[in-house]
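thought: user wants a sequence for this fold. calling inverse folding tool.
action: design(structure=
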């Protein structure tokens, strides 16, 4: 096998992957992830930063 393969059950690897990429591409600050529910009851996950 070429290189080390990360297991799906490797908790530290999953936490590291989850921590990456959650910064705003414009200001670099952490992005807030919230669950928004519309008036019709449809749920959406929204990522909020920089007035978006």
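)
observation: tool returned 52 residues.
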């Amino acid at each position: 096998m070429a290189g080390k393969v990360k297991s799906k059950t490797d908790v530290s690897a999953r936490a590291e992957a989850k921590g990456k990429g959650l910064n705003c591409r414009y200001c670099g600050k952490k992005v807030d992830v919230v669950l928004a529910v519309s008036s019709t009851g449809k749920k959406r996950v929204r990522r909020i930063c920089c007035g978006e």
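thought: summarizing for user.
answer: Here is the designed sequence. The mean pLDDT is 78.
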